[in-house]
């Protein structure tokens, strides 16, 4: 692909290096002369010293010829401006990195439509999503998010003795807008129909709004017995810790944030609704003991300092915390910690750069559909945009002959997302998500062609 990247800080450099190794044609824009000189020697790409929000600079980078434009600097406003200009100049697809606040305000204002940008993301939110997955499902069964985080994907293994076993799906009375997308039974994975029944040992994949699934999941794990609230301590009230606390405080977790900065503590207390904010320093073992961190289910270190994050996790684990998670900004360090998690006793290390790379990788393709998630058994969750005209455009879900082995699991219309029902209509420009078996993939993609 022909790709232009603006902003070569940590995230931009990490992504550019990966894309170059994959053989893509890159042109890079960076305002720092020193950084340009360094990258010019290290990277097999044209590096331009200039302002990414300048039309002259964008024209010099030949953005009109690009398939993809990525604005990745640390300045949210500059990224919005650069991506908007690039789109106006003819780039096929534009993506901008933004401050988490912009994404939090999307329900009030459609920034993407206003600026003509295809996708917005924040590294803080992506990293927080990765950390939250481990909290919601610490035993490592799949927990993912699609449709801009509004629909959750969760896998549950069914134990013996559940009341839901042996009953047709139509009799389970699932909440509205929840779907069992797939069932894996031994080596066989299939998309269930209303007449299929669940068996002990099945691995099911659920789709629905995160809070709805949080209430529903106990039916498939304990037969409906409520699960106790997990105790979560977050070290660091910056953008990473704040984003994580916001995600967790609406679920079945009791959240506390330890933050050293008193001004930041006051701001967090005014914003967070169900989170206890404590001024303190988790690098102090005495402080950890005083706050009874050893009795917590989770200790999550989410400061800007990798060393503090790793060391406080080790201290919390020694005090008895059940699960410890660390935010590690250097991707290579995060990879080493994750590989040696058993020896280090850190459940997982999350790198914001790697989280951004995984999220953006689905856009680096010229295909009509992108794979956003791969499941065991060969099935995939595909993301596709409904074309202006086509076999599915303007029709209700029930009116379309979907290939056997495929099922719609999410629909994004403007800024709203839902699990579509039979009477929902697919409008041009909607983004849909479908769970598709390997055998059904080709037929599904063909169905969506204009």
Mind explaining what this structure looks like?
- With 450 residues, this protein is an alpha/beta fold.
- The chain folds into 4 domains: 2-121, Rossmann fold, CATH 3.40.50.720; 137-221, 2-Layer Sandwich (Alpha-Beta Plaits), CATH 3.30.70; 231-357, Rossmann fold (3-Layer(aba) Sandwich); 365-447, 2-Layer Sandwich (Alpha-Beta Plaits).
- It has 16 helices and 22 strands.
- The strands form 4 sheets. Strands 3-2-1-4-5-6 form a 6-stranded parallel sheet, sandwiched between helices.
- The longest helix has 14 residues, at 123-136.
- The two termini are 23 Å apart.
Overview in brief:
33% of the residues lie in helices and 25% in strands. Helix 1 packs across helix 15, helix 7 crosses helix 9 (239-248) and helix 7 (123-136) packs across helix 15 (352-361). The chain is built from 16 helices and 22 strands.
Features:
Rossmann fold, 6-stranded parallel beta sheet, 450 residues, 16 helices, Alpha-Beta Plaits, alpha/beta, globular
Task: Give the overall shape, derived from the CA principal axes.
Answer: globular
* Oligomeric organization of the protein chains: single chain
Instruction: Count the beta strands.
Output: 22
CATH class of the largest domain: Alpha Beta
Write the layout of secondary structure elements.
Layout: E1 2-6, H1 10-21, E2 25-30, H2 33-42, E3 46-49, H3 55-60, E4 68-71, H4 76-88, E5 93-97, H5 100-104, H6 111-115, E6 119-121, H7 123-136, E7 143-146, E8 151-157, E9 179-185, E10 188-190, E11 203-208, H8 210-221, E12 230-235, H9 239-248, E13 253-259, H10 262-271, E14 275-279, H11 285-290, E15 298-301, H12 306-319, E16 323-327, H13 331-339, H14 341-344, E17 348-350, H15 352-361, E18 369-374, E19 380-385, E20 406-413, E21 416-418, E22 431-436, H16 441-447
Helix pairs in contact: 1-15, 7-9, 7-15
